[in-house]
Amino acid sequence: MPDSADLAAIRLTLELATVTTLLLLLFGTPLAWWLARTHSRWKRTVGALVALPLVLPPTVLGFYLLITMGPEGPIGRLTQALGLGLLPFTFPGLVLASFLYSLPFVVQPIQNAFETMGHRPLEVAATLRASPLDTFFTVAIPLARPGFLSAAILGFAHTVGEFGVVLMMGGNIPGVTRVVSVQIYSHVEAMEYSHAHWLSGGMVVFAFVVLLALQSQRPARRS
Asked: Which of 139, 89, 82 is nearest to 114 (CA)?
């Protein structure tokens, strides 16, 4: 059975995943819209940067975030000058690292949904004298709803399952940065396999439920 440290890690993980997913949807949606509609020469470069965490080892990303946000890094110096302190080994630092690492899992499904929608619905809205902002909120977002649902599920699940990035950026501070994946690692190190089994089994069930939810978003094939 879980102890108080396990429950604290679960609560922290759910809090981290919720905050990160909301931020990803907030900032990832305009980015996905731009990628889906722009003809800029920078589209491929920005798209590659967004997708970089898909192929980059998480420890590499975590290492450079740690250096950049550390006391001698440019972001670290800025946050200290603003009186915000340092982000590494704090919950806000975990949120920022999770945001960057899960970005493609949110942006790409929404971008694909916007691209699949095509130009016709937007052109019809324009003929009805709808402003671009009205068209975006009343036409584009409702039509892209399946993409948003997939993005929210993937972003949340990917954040829950993170290990390398959160360990590099947050360390292993109980109640502050120790999430479920790090808690499992700690149990294994201490040879507390019963606790590791309990948490790992929960992660397996969670992953299966996520996959079922994603499958339900796919349209059924017509015979």
From this structure: 139
Single-letter code of the amino acid located at 64:
Y
Which CATH number is 64's domain given? 1.10.3720.10
Question: Taking the model in full, what pTM does it have?
Answer: 0.89
Domain of 152 in residue numbering reads as 4-216
Q: Give the contacts of 70 (CB within 8 A, at least 6 positions apart).
A: 76, 86, 88
- With tokens 């499992």, the residue in question is 184
Instruction: Classify residue 136 by its DSSP letter.
Output: I
DSSP code at position 219: P
Does some domain include residue 222?
no
Q: Are the CB atoms for 159 and 179 separated by under 8 Å?
A: no
Q: What angle do CA 53, 5, 166 make, to 5 degrees?
A: 15
Structural contact between residues 158 and 20, judged by C-beta atoms closer than 8 angstroms:
no
Tokens of 136: 């975006």
**DSSP annotation of 192:** -
Q: How far apart are CA 87 and CA 24, in angstroms?
A: 19
Q: 3-class SS at 57?
A: coil
**Encoded tokens for 171:** 């360390």
Looking at residue 46, its amino acid is V
Number of structural domains the chain divides into: 1
Per-residue pLDDT tens over the stretch 147-186: 999 999 999 999 998 998 999 998 888 888 999 999 999 9
Encode pLDDT of 56-72 as tens digits.
999 999 999 999 999 99
